[in-house]
Each structure stands twice: as C-alpha cells, then as structure tokens.
Write a structure and sequence with these properties.
This protein folds into two domains: about 130 residues, no CATH class; about 280 residues, Orthogonal Bundle (Cytochrome p450). Helices cover about 50% and strands about 10% of the residues. It contains 18 helices and twelve strands. A hairpin with a 2-residue loop joins β6 and β7. α8 packs across α9, α12 crosses α14 and α15 packs across α18. The relative contact order is 0.16.
C-alpha cells in the first residue's frame, strides 16, 4: 500500500462512527478500494439498529476469518441484530431479523419453496417473462440496461414469488414496490424514531408499506380459500409448507414475502446489469456466452453471472453480532460487537482470484471452484441467502434469452464506474448499452 493510501486508511478509521457509516453508505466503492490490498482484520466503528447506536466491528476478508464467521454457532453469532434497520419495512417476522431457534424454524418452513425440484417448477414462468421482456427492448439505440432488468425482475417477484398474475392488484403492486424497494437508509432510520416518523418522507414510506402489506394479506387470504395444488408459485409452496404440523402464519408469510422482494429484486437486477455491461464490452466473451445459450450450456452462463458478481459485488458486506468474545488471530472482538466479512475485499484477493480485475468466467468452471469463503455474494453458513439458487436460475434464463435475441455493444469505450445506490452498488450510468437484433 502506498504511503498516501496508508494515511488515508488510518484517517478513515479514526473518523466518528456516523461519518464512517455515511462513507460506507454512499462511498462504498471508494472505501473498498482504499482497503483492498490488505487481508488483515480492520477495525471499524459503525452504527447499528433502529436507534443507530455506535458499535465496534472487525472487517475481515481472509478466507480463514470468513470461515470462522460463517461457521460460528447461531447461538452466539447473530445476523438478525445487524439488520434491524429494515424492520419498518419487513415487520418483526422477517427471517433476516431473526436469530437462534426462531431463525432455524423459519428456514425449515421456507426451504421447501427453494429446493431443486421447486426451482424447476418456476423455470417456465421465468422463461415466459424473460421472453416478454426482450420483445420490448429498444433496438439500435442507447438505453439503460438497469431499467429493463429492474422491470423484469420485479415482474418475476410479483408473479412467480407473490403469485399475483393479473388484475388491479398486480397493477397496484407494480406502482408501489419500486419506491418501497428504493427507500433511502436515512428514511428507514427516521421511521424508527417517533419525532421523525411523521415527517413526509417517512410517512409516505409507511403508507406504501401498509398498502403493500394489505395487498399481500388479501392475496394470502384468497389463496387459503383455494384448493392446494392450484398454483405453482413460491407463495403456493409456502402455504403448503409444514414441519411437524407447524405452519407459517399470515403475518409471517407477509414478512418473508417482503423480505424476498427486498433481498431479491434490486440485487438480481443490478447483478444482471453489470453482466450485460461486461458482455457488451467484451465481444469475444459475448460470443462464447451466446454459443453456450444456443447449445443449452447453462453452466457456462451461470459462470458468467458468478464472475460478474465477483468483479462487481452488489452488496459490500455481511455482518454478525457477537454475544461472546471471538479471536481472529491476535485480534479480539468483544461480546456486543460485530464481525463483518467483506465481500468487496475477499473477491479481489489475488491469491484466490489471479488478476482479479479481469473478467474470467472460467474461474467458476475450475475443479474445485472458488470456495464458499472466497466468493460469497449471498452470505454464508446458516445465514446464506435462501433465495440464492432462485436468483441464479433467474439470471441464467434472462441471460440466455437476451443473448439469443441480441448482439450487445457499449455506448462508449470507457467502463462505467461503481456507484452506491441504497443497499446496492450499480453502474453509475445505469449500464448503458445498444442492442441489435440477431438475424441468425
């Protein structure tokens, strides 16, 4: 690390917690680059929970340290404590906010909707929506890929996850979900404080959340009156799921459905935007991916998406709060503080990803592939995102349909820089590309 970078890093970590928090919120790409060349644990001070209390944390990226976090006992390593900021949106029943036995119970009841056989049941619906989307693409002109990826991934959430297939409810949810999904973190903080909650931005978000909740409750009530097996979407499987007679209540279903929306819509759309941005700039790799699409080589298409998620981490970190002390080499994290694996740092470790700035899907076709402690865009351990396989399935199908329909090229030579946008890091110009219909 240069002396200038060393001083900048030292000064960054001396800043007040609120300043560090704001830098991480809105300057995550810059912070990641500043810290990137070190795999040693880095102490940070962040704000946590709806009241934004200051909490010391340890940012880790070495595979041994990441493994230690992900293998930590759920009784002592708590992710739910670290994500309380989203409680005003998802309510108290979200699996993201749960820990210990409560979290384990929810995972058991959610898993049947995301098994391999369940995913195969969703593929036809996702494929149809992907085909409908590419038919609406503008051709021969510059457009923002992110806008189109947000639209189709939202439609997949509404139809394939929520099971809302037509009518006024679908129209209304299309209008309500984007502002709910894009809410500013500062608004979430304000929603948790009585004195701020009635200010217009917080009040409007709360009204949207209540209307979405009401629409989902009506959807669930109607589905419970129907016959089992009438539908093949995620909601249908969640309604049928049971463990020793235990089932999800309506309030739990609503919390989990909104969680799946918040965790799976913007993230998948952004990952696909970065993927299209890279393929447009790399014509030889685009041709190789198109050949895979034509021959049904979904493994290669998935490798392309995974490499995009490595090179352009959509989410920067995951976190665990500790109820007992933990040692990372010679560094101690006291009880009450947090250990935070950094996706952004781990994905650029040259020891595990040689020439990490290069886009190489073949990394994920190697035997063995990158380990769960070096590549973890979906988190890890018992807290690994329950919708990870759904997201990858969705991305494979979208990429296949796009490549079969279009040749892609960038609107200019320079790559787009990463920009923090709410919880995700996306191309600062929205992934601008030009799509030309394929004739053969």
């Amino acid at each position: 690390m240069s002396s200038l970078a060393t001083r900048a890093r030292r000064n960054l970590l001396r800043l007040p917690a609120i300043t560090q928090q704001l830098l991480v919120m809105w300057h995550r790409p810059w912070v990641s680059r500043l810290l990137r060349d070190s795999t040693e644990p880095i102490r940070i001070r962040m704000l946590n929970g709806p009241r934004m209390n200051a909490r010391d944390g340890l940012l880790v990226s070495h595979p041994d340290h990441v493994r230690q976090v992900f293998a930590g006992s759920p009784s002592a390593w708590h992710a739910g404590e670290c994500y309380q900021i989203i409680k005003p949106l998802v309510g108290e029943h979200s699996v993201l906010l749960q820990d210990r036995t409560e979290h384990a119970r929810s995972r058991k009841l959610l898993m049947p909707a995301f098994t391999a056989s369940a995913l195969r049941g969703y593929e036809a619906m996702v494929e149809q929506l992907a085909k409908e989307e590419v038919r609406r693409w503008p051709t021969g002109q510059v457009f923002r890929a992110q806008d189109h990826m947000q639209r189709v991934t939202l439609e997949i959430i509404l139809r394939v996850v929520f099971g809302v297939s037509e009518g006024d409810r679908l129209v209304r949810l299309r209008a309500l979900v984007p502002p709910l999904n894009e809410v500013n973190p500062l608004v979430l903080i304000g929603m948790s404080h009585a004195r701020l909650a009635e200010l217009p931005p917080m009040r409007r978000t709360r009204e949207i959340q209540r209307e979405v909740t009401g629409l989902l409750r009506t959807q669930i009530t109607e589905r419970r009156k129907g016959e089992p097996g009438d539908h093949a979407d995620v909601l249908a499987r969640l309604l049928e799921a049971q463990v020793d007679g235990d089932r999800l209540s309506d309030d739990e279903l609503i919390g989990h459905l909104i969680t799946l929306l918040l965790a799976g819509h913007e993230t998948t759309a952004t990952a696909m935007t970065w993927t299209l941005h890279e393929l447009a700039r790399l014509p030889e790799l685009q041709d190789r991916a198109r050949q895979a699409a034509m021959t049904g080589d979904l493994g290669y298409l998935e490798a392309v998406v995974k490499e995009s998620m490595r090179l352009h981490p959509v989410i920067a970190i995951v976190a665990r709060a500790l109820s007992e002390p933990a040692e990372f080499d010679a560094v101690t994290v006291p009880a009450g503080h947090a250990a935070t694996p950094s996706i952004s740092l781990a994905h650029f470790n040259a020891e595990h990803f040689p020439e990490p700035e290069e886009f190489r899907p073949e990394r994920f076709l190697a035997d063995p592939p990158p380990s769960a402690n070096t590549w973890f865009p979906f988190g890890g351990g018992v807290r690994r995102c329950i919708g990870a396989s759904f997201s990858l399935m969705e991305a494979r199908i979208l990429l296949r349909e796009i490549l079969l329909s279009f040749d892609l090229r960038p609107d200019r030579d320079r790559p787009e820089r990463p920009k923090a946008r709410n919880v995700v890091v996306s191309p600062h110009r929205g992934g601008r590309i030009i799509a030309t219909p394929r004739t053969a």
